[in-house]
Specification:
With 254 residues, the protein is an alpha/beta fold. It has one domain: Rossmann fold (3-Layer(aba) Sandwich), CATH 3.40.50. The protein is built from ten helices and eight strands. It is globular and about 55 Å long.
Length: 254
């Protein structure tokens, strides 16, 4: 008998709590790669940090991480760390000192920003020749074929009318957004490796902006998605999945 998701998988009390509990953490390989591309490791800006999914990984490689987000609830949900200095601030007006950052990371957020204004701010706070990385991830891959088809159709077809326009930037791997200098794509060997239960996967889907928009429009899709997933889930309690990382990176010459 296939395992069941929670019988009633309700909305979390807030989006920040959903992100903190259900969004995956980035792999150590990403931060090791960032570290290898950075000549100095004193100070890093985790811009639009959310609930700190990337901040902890950066703290293993940088003496100080300045983690900012415009949302007080996201900052409140972030885990404390002696090297991470959380601050409520807009990406486009951070309040950080000029020429202070060795590296800037924007993780799964550049498509939500006013990119020209953010780029101006990034050039203000970066040290000459500093590194900037925009990273995101693609939809889940590697599921058994019937489940993978369901995931692909859910993401690309069934939720199409509820995805915000910014989703196009993600699908294009941020190639259509103006990077303030020469840039290149992230290495293809970077990915998030997961071993998820049915409930884990449904919880992750629940954080998608399209699901929230559908709910605001009066369409609670989660109960039916729960039932569909239960029918498709293989006999194993957990299955391996990957989220391929994508994005752009380059050095900024202020």
């Amino acid at each position: 008998m296939a395992p069941s998701c929670s019988p009633k998988h309700g909305w979390f009390e807030s989006v920040a709590e959903s992100y903190a509990q259900r969004r995956p953490h980035y792999p150590a390989s990403l931060f090791s790669w960032i570290s290898s591309k950075t000549s100095n490791h004193q100070r890093c800006w985790d811009c639009a940090c959310g609930s700190g999914q990337a901040s902890l990984g950066l703290a293993r490689h940088f003496h100080r991480v300045d983690a900012t987000d415009v949302s007080p609830s996201q900052i409140a949900a972030a885990p404390p760390h002696p090297s991470i200095h959380y601050q409520i601030a807009a990406a486009e007006d951070s309040g950080l000192p000029a020429a202070s950052m060795d590296t800037i990371l924007v993780a799964a957020a550049i498509h939500w920003l006013d990119v020209p204004r953010f780029n101006h701010e990034a050039l203000r706070v970066i040290r000459p020749g500093g590194l900037m990385v925009w990273v995101g991830y693609e939809p889940p891959q590697g599921a058994p074929p019937p489940l993978q088809l369901w995931l692909d159709q859910l993401y690309g077809e069934r939720l199409r009318n509820w995805w915000p326009p910014q989703r196009d930037h993600v699908d294009l791997h941020y190639a259509d957004l103006p990077f303030p200098g020469a840039s290149q794509s992230l290495p293809k060997e970077l990915y998030i490796s997961l071993k998820w239960s049915c409930d884990d996967l449904l919880g992750f889907i629940e954080t998608w902006s399209a699901l929230r928009k559908a709910g605001q429009d009066g369409h609670d899709l989660l109960p039916n998605l729960n039932i569909e997933l239960q029918k498709l889930w293989p006999a194993e309690q957990t299955i391996p999945l990957t989220l391929p990382l994508m994005g752009r990176w380059g050095y900024l010459a202020r």
